[in-house]
Amino acid sequence: MDAPTPPRPLRLGVNIDLVATIRNARGGDHPDPARAAQIVAEAGGDGITVHLREDRRHIRDGDLARIQEMTGLPLNLEMAATDEMLAIALRHHPHGACIVPEKREERTTEGGLDAAGLHNQLAPIVGRLGEAGVRVSLFIAAEMRQLDAAMMLGVPVVEFHTGEYAHATGEARAAELARITEMAALAAKNGIEPHAGHGLTFENVQPIAAIPQLAELNIGHYLVGEAIFTGLEASICRMRKLMDEAR
Ligand code: PXP
After folding, report:
1. Residue 6 domain flag
2. Which of 31, 125, 152, 218 is placed for a possible disulfide with 197 were both Cys, Cβ 3.0 to 4.6 Å?
3. Distance 2 CA to ligand 1 centre (A)
4. Which of 159, 164, 198, 226 is catalytic?
5. Which atom of ligand 1 is nearest to the CA of 78?
6. pLDDT averaged over 10-residue windows placed end to end, the chain, 247 residues
């Protein structure tokens, strides 16, 4: 029997929402996000991330089961902290659920979750998901107040929002990187597995990938955009290589 493959020190979760956005533009079933999920697996991705939004603008309910059936990769379901999404998560039982803030009018998840301000709304949802064996993560800014709130809620994972890092340049970017580095170390020290994501590209991924405590990066828009030019497999392989080189 083959020895099991050891887990990678830094996993790549590929967000395939935009494949569904393209499909939905014509109302048919092509391109199929479940086929994209299979390519992610073949290309060396470690997980599939999807965000089932309230307005179903990209991934839809029916995609979840198909993605789970068609790949053996762990599914990370990004979800708003609502009763509707909780029921869906409990029904589909993804490997992980990442609770994100959600506004209808935003183009993407623009900021982190206010875990501190929303403690009472989040606590029962985190509790129910945890009891069901779903690994809960909170998508938060790399701020002490938010990390403290995540600790109070007892989540096993936080994902730091790297959007500000990605959009900044020069000293501002260095300051964002320092903040994420410090918070990742603090999360790990307190028994929380730190992840990161949003706005990561071939150009900006390596300093983030080099943060030793980070266990997973979730990347979508750039990989799917780049796939238009090089194919999804090539785009994922290149990202994987850059991440591995940074470690
Ligand atoms: N992580 C979370 C929680 C997100 O909401 C998103 C965007 O949907 C990503 C990662 C990926 O961001 P991007 O598409 O910019 O790579």
Report:
1. no
2. 218
3. 34
4. 198
5. 3
6. 69 98 95 98 96 93 95 96 97 97 75 93 98 98 97 98 97 98 98 98 98 98 98 98 96
Active site residue 95: no
Ligand 1 pocket, residues with Cβ under 6 angstroms: 15, 17, 51, 78, 98, 100, 108-109, 139, 159, 197-200, 218-222
* 142 within 8 A of 160, measured Cβ to Cβ: yes
Domain assignment of residue 81, yes or no: yes
- CA 31, CA 162: separation in Å to the nearest integer? 28
Query: How far is it, in rounded angstroms, from Cα 240 to Cα 12?
Result: 7
14 DSSP 8-state letter: E
Which segments of 111-247 are extended strands (E)?
Answer: 135-140, 157-161, 193-197, 216-219
In this prediction, residue 103 carries a pLDDT of 76
* Contact call for residues 74 and 96 (beta carbons, < 8 A): yes
**6 C-alpha to center of ligand 1: Å?**
26
Please say if 51 is a catalytic residue. Answer: yes
Instruction: Give me the pLDDT at residue 102, please.
Output: 82
**247 C-alpha to center of ligand 1: Å?**
22
End-to-end CA distance of the chain: 30
pLDDT of res. 110:
73
Residue 27 lies in a domain: yes
196 Cα to the center of ligand 1, angstroms:
9
Which CATH number does the domain housing residue 34 bear? 3.20.20.70
pLDDT at 107: 73
